[in-house]
Design goal:
The complex is a heterodimer of chains A (111) and B (117).
Chain A lengths: L8 E5 L4 E6 L9 E6 L6 E6 L4 E2 L4 E4 L5 E6 L8 E7 L14 E6 L1
Parallel strand pairs in A: 1-9
Antiparallel strand pairs in A: 2-7, 3-4, 3-8, 5-6, 6-7, 8-9
Chain B lengths: L4 E3 L2 E4 L5 E6 L6 E8 L3 E9 L2 E5 L6 E5 L5 E5 L8 E8 L12 E2 L3 E5 L1
Parallel strand pairs in B: 2-11
Antiparallel strand pairs in B: 1-3, 3-8, 4-5, 4-9, 5-6, 7-8, 9-10, 9-11
The chains are: A mainly beta (111), B mainly beta (117).
Chain lengths: 111, 117
Amino acid sequence: DAKTTQPPSMDCAEGRAANLPCNHSTISGNEYVYWYRQIHSQGPQYIIHGLKNNETNEMASLIITEDRKSSTLILPHATLRDTAVYYCIGGYGGSQGNLIFGKGTKLSVKP
Amino acid sequence: DSGVTQTPKHLITATGQRVTLRCSPRSGDLSVYWYQQSLDQGLQFLIQYYNGEERAKGNILERFSAQQFPDLHSELNLSSLELGDSALYFCASSVGTSGRGDQETQYFGPGTRLLVL
């Protein structure tokens, strides 16, 4: 089973910041938090990942709480092309390396 | 573009048939993963190969098999196809330096859409 909990859907106005929450209270101390997104039926696209510290790249920012029980993915200026299902994934299922996808959050960016 | 390629993009076949899906990982990546995405099950991990050897198995049916070749491309073979096998099949790759795939970013291909009639 997925180790993360996300809201099933969210809306965001174009140009505004999209803040996507994720609860991962059961991940272990050495498991990373990964974010992927899937636009329509395309292959999942890697966004960002982190362990303890906040991270930022050209796509997004990841804010992880100090207790590592939750995190927030921030898309600073959402565009219509950011409409997608966003998956928060905790760890890699141990030594197996596979990703355990939950149902994700369907983000709809509206004009 | 993730650098992972998959062929074919679409495949339509009949029940009972056998098909082969192909994946070429990103240049330099040693690990290849296969995932299945159906409407009712979401994205499910099937199998992982690392440098030619099977590394991990997920919810892969016995009718399905995979292999990774010396040039690191991988093939997923689906046999005795059933209607329920209709799905998107994704391949992903990672560097695989540890062999275990721990905390390694996986990059996904565009997928193969399989329709079994």
